[in-house]
Amino acid sequence: MTDKNVNRTVYKLLLVTAGMFAFGYALVPLYRVYCDLTGRGSTTAVSESAIRAGDVDDERLVTVVFDTNTRDIPWTFKAEQHKTRIRPGKLSEAVFLVENRSGRTVTGRAIPSVSPVQAGIYVSKMDCFCFSEQVLAPGETREMPVRFIVDTDLPERFSSLTLSYTFFDVGDNAAGAPKQTQKANS
């Protein structure tokens, strides 16, 4: 091979590497756009009846199950309660517990989802740890609340919902983190 061919090959490999790196960073905003367009995934819409004061369905109870997962992050993550029963229209709160089991500071981000997917538009999160990255020092434990409302317009066929959160390592050294997968349901 000539020097010219080697230089072209190196240039092409660098271009491919840069493209893969850029695509990796673009995935989160692209996923949000996908969720907004399709109504699937982690994005939930805020409907008018979900935020009207005093609009609580006292005749109905909906079971909400909390599913917690970690992916490629050395954390223990679980819900304080595995499930709860709530009244549609009433502001509800769930508390999640997270612990950094590693000897390094770790930055994580939770990706939420609602199941069944069709019910996602009836769940509005007012406050959630999933709105921002979470940074935990080595051995740090933290309580993280989620405040949410299930819309009174939720169709009767949905008597149970699952709010699921999966934490991913998004820190600078995420690529060097130990590869672990943990499923934790309390």
Q: Could you name the CATH topology of the largest domain? A: Ctag/Cox11 (Pfam 04442)
Q: Could you give a short account of the major beta sheet?
A: 6 strands, mixed
How much helix is in the residues?
10-25%
Average residue pLDDT: 82
Annotation, overall tally of beta strands: 10
**Would you identify the regions where 5 or more consecutive residues have pLDDT less than 50?**
42-50, 174-186
Characterize this entry briefly.
The chain contains two helices and ten strands; from the N terminus they run ααββββββββββ. The protein is an alpha+beta fold and 186 residues long.
Can you tell me about this structure?
The chain has two helices and ten strands, in the order ααββββββββββ. The protein is of the alpha+beta class. It folds into two domains: 38 residues; 126 residues, Ctag/Cox11 (Pfam 04442) (Sandwich). Strands 1, 3, 5, 7, 9 and 10 form a six-stranded mixed beta sheet that branches. Strands 2-4-8-6 form a four-stranded antiparallel beta sheet, with no helix packed on it. It is elongated and about 80 Å long.
